[in-house]
Task: inverse folding
């Protein structure tokens, strides 16, 4: 008897007790479904994190003023002495490997174009900011150093702002918009970056020269006249960011006269490392799901073994009759083994379908893509088939070693 004959007989037996067969495969369904969800969501989340890291800019550190303390109570980030243009230039000149550097001051303002208005984020930056963030313009141009020094009334728009202020599809280049009632000329449109790692729309922004933002929109610090907010520093590809971070911290402690052992009133952050830490946390969270998958497969395998033992008992006379007419032990062994594997593969197929649906639902609610590879499906199905072989072998062997005479006498 060939394998195909065994498969045909196995499927006929499964159809005879369809409900029992489906209920028996629940453990396999849950196990395989868990594998698919774990792999798809994990791979999708890592892909999204990689995209968000890329959107932040590569080889970049961010220097920010820290929080002040009054009677031991923290006042919040940015409440200490602001960073100045001199601080930024010192980092550029004294820290090795700086490829580009820019300050960033932020605020919110109402933008008006004709009878259309929109409230958006306003960022004042230096001309190298777009190089630091790997954020080119798709239309128009970037600021020139002279426009930054003079505080020229020019802006570059994010794609969300373009969609809101120019719903008619007209080109924004050369158009004038009002920011807090101050007219600015649009000279460029930024490449779309999508959502940030923190869930905000990075394209809902306008960029203007930092001097224009300080003087007309965001305002100046009462303590430091030429404050630069946060300093974004991009380093050459061969620079070790950990060493660069230490160099910036040492320099800033000297400039801000922080005594040895005292708490820093600034911080230097590697946002890419922060995002990788989030990925590691996500990977840790998938471990319980992996354990659930393994346990479900074991439980499902025990269920398969149980139902196959019942099947052997129910079909004892059939087994004896086949042996009596010339059926060999290996044919009986193959038949019941194929039946166990078919039962597990059926559960695996249902598990793949359900796992894909659950993974798609999770990805939709979390707003990240799912990545279900052919390798993941193959591994899940192989695990299901292996479960059928392992847990179906003992019932199949028991059936193959029945005494034909005793089997024919069975009621």
Result:
């Amino acid at each position: 008897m060939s394998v195909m004959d065994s498969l045909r007989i196995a499927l006929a037996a499964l159809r005879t007790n369809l409900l029992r067969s489906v209920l028996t495969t629940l453990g396999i369904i849950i196990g395989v479904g868990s594998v698919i969800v774990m792999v798809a969501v994990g791979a999708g989340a890592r892909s999204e994190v990689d995209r968000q890291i890329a959107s932040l800019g590569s080889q970049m550190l961010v220097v920010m003023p820290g929080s002040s303390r009054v009677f031991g109570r923290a006042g919040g980030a940015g409440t200490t002495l602001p960073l100045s243009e001199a601080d930024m230039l010192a980092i550029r000149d004294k820290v090795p490997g700086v490829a580009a550097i820019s300050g960033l001051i932020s605020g919110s303002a109402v933008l008006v174009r004709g009878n259309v208005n929109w409230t958006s984020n306003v960022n004042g930056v230096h001309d190298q900011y777009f190089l630091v963030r790997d954020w080119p313009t798709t239309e128009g141009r970037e600021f020139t150093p002279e426009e930054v020094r003079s505080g020229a009334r020019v802006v570059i728009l994010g794609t969300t702002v373009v969609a809101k202020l120019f719903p008619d599809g007209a080109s924004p280049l050369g158009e004038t918009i009002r920011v807090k009632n101050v007219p600015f000329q649009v000279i460029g449109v930024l490449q779309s970056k999508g959502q940030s790692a923190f869930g905000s729309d990075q394209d809902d922004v306008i960029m203007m020269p930092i001097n224009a933002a300080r003087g007309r929109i965001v305002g100046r610090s009462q303590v430091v006249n030429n404050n630069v907010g946060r300093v974004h520093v991009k380093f050459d590809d061969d620079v070790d960011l950990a060493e660069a971070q230490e160099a910036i911290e040492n320099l800033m402690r000297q400039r801000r006269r922080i005594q040895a052992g005292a708490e820093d009133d600034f911080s230097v952050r590697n946002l890419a490392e922060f995002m990788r830490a989030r990925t590691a946390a996500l990977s840790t969270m998938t471990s319980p799901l992996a354990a659930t998958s393994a346990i479900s497969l074991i439980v499902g395998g025990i269920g398969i073994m149980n139902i196959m033992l019942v099947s052997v008992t129910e079909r004892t006379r059939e087994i004896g009759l086949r042996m009596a007419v010339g059926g060999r032990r290996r044919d009986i062994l193959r038949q019941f083994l194929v039946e166990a594997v078919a039962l597990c593969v059926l559960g695996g197929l249902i598990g793949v379908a359900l796992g894909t649906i659950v993974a798609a639902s999770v990805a939709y609610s979390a707003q990240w893509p799912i990545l279900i590879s052919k390798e993941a499906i193959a591994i899940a199905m192989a695990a299901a088939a292996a479960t059928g072989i392992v847990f179906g072998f003992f019932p199949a062997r028991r059936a193959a070693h029945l005494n034909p005479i005793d089997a024919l006498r069975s009621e």
